[in-house]
Design goal:
Helix content is 41%, strand content 18%. The chain is of the alpha/beta class and 336 residues long. It folds into three domains: 158 residues, 2-enoyl-CoA Hydratase, Chain A, domain 1 (Alpha-Beta Complex), CATH 3.90.226; 79 residues, no CATH class; 31 residues, no CATH class. The protein starts with 11 loop residues before the first helix and ends with a helix.
């Protein structure tokens, strides 16, 4: 880029001086934002970086065009990254025409350009592990690749994520109770270490004959994973459980294995419980149905017959009511 007036180009000499002036540094990070440059200078930079014995990290800040891609590939694949909007142009080697050149001279220039293209393709193939023909087609197409395409073709191993306004989350590998138990156990050990007469309370767990198997720092027979206990080992308890102690804490509590008969009894008890529940539910349903079907209606009392004629409420017969109705009707008609 010196031809365009750049005072301090990113040259092979500059990279060499960077390493020579920082001999105590083992890691170097190069953030690339470059439109490319001289093929010979780019190949020299690549060789100096690869032969430095240093750990290289290369990241594409913006553009990584032309020979800048070889600088990117100087770092191992796992150390090559790109920002999300990074772009890279892969194209054939280009050069200006010279005046007054004969056919042989032009053929030599073309052959030299093809040699440079093959040298660049060698680097691409070796560092990306992508098929050479695929990379050659990319070079001949001369298209700009985005970050995802660079990742797909093996030029980088990772696309950087944005980290502004990011909420950090911590995934706990242990439950809250386990962490608390472990902390309490550690504090107890620390207290015992510095105090000659610790004030801890121990509970002795015994076998069926009353022999002490192990002790826990508790006031009762409670057993929990993470609880402080001594000594280390695996101890079977009379109730069928098995307790494993390691490094002064309970690491596992194994429940007793049921025999076939015990399993059958447990299954029968469960069946009886379920049947009793069904019976209770059925009784409730039947009671509700009875309440819905019952009625508070009461039939009116009827008077006894008078002279063989049925009477209604008030002691009147049907004929009495008929006569009254006839009289009322005659009054309305004005006949009586």
């Amino acid at each position: 880029m010196q031809m365009f007036g750049l005072d301090e180009p990113f040259s092979a000499d500059r990279v060499r001086n960077l390493f020579d002036n920082n001999t105590d540094e083992n890691e170097f990070t190069f953030n690339i934002h470059c439109d490319g440059g001289s093929v010979s200078e780019g190949l020299a930079i690549y060789d100096i970086m690869r032969g430095s014995g240093k750990t290289m990290f290369c990241n594409i800040d913006g553009s990584c065009h032309s020979m800048a891609i070889c600088v990117l590939l100087a770092a191992p694949k796992e150390n090559r990254t790109a920002n999300q909007n990074a772009r890279a142009l892969i194209h054939r080697v280009q050069g200006g025409m010279t005046d007054c050149s004969n056919a042989d001279e032009l053929k030599n220039i073309a052959a030299e350009m093809e040699r440079e293209e093959n040298a660049i393709l060698d680097i691409y193939t070796d560092r990306t592990k992508t098929a050479r023909e695929t990379l050659k087609q990319l070079m001949f197409d001369g298209k700009i690749l985005n970050a995802q395409e660079l990742l797909n073709y093996g030029f980088i191993s990772k696309i950087n994520n944005y980290n502004t306004n990011k909420k950090n989350s911590i995934v706990m590998s242990k439950t809250k109770k386990e962490v608390i138990n472990a902390g309490e156990s550690f504090l107890t050990k620390l207290k015992n270490f510095f105090n000659e007469t610790p004030d801890t309370v121990n509970f002795d767990h015994t076998d069926a004959d009353g022999n002490v198997l192990f002790s826990t720092e508790a006031e009762d027979d409670t057993l929990e994973v993470g609880m402080a206990a001594t000594p280390d080992g695996t101890f079977p308890l009379p109730d069928g459980r098995s307790v494993t102690i390691a490094a002064g804490v309970i690491t596992e509590i194994t429940e007793p294995q049921q025999t076939d008969n015990e399993k059958k009894i447990a299954e029968l008890e469960q069946t009886i419980t379920e049947q009793n529940a069904l019976l209770t539910e059925a009784q409730t349903v039947i009671t509700d149905l009875k309440n819905q079907l019952s009625s508070n209606f009461q039939v009116s009392n009827r008077n006894k017959n008078i002279d063989g004629k049925r009477t209604l409420n008030g002691g009147k017969t049907v004929d009495d009511y008929k006569n009254e109705m006839n009289e009322n009707r005659n009054k309305w008609k004005g006949t009586k």
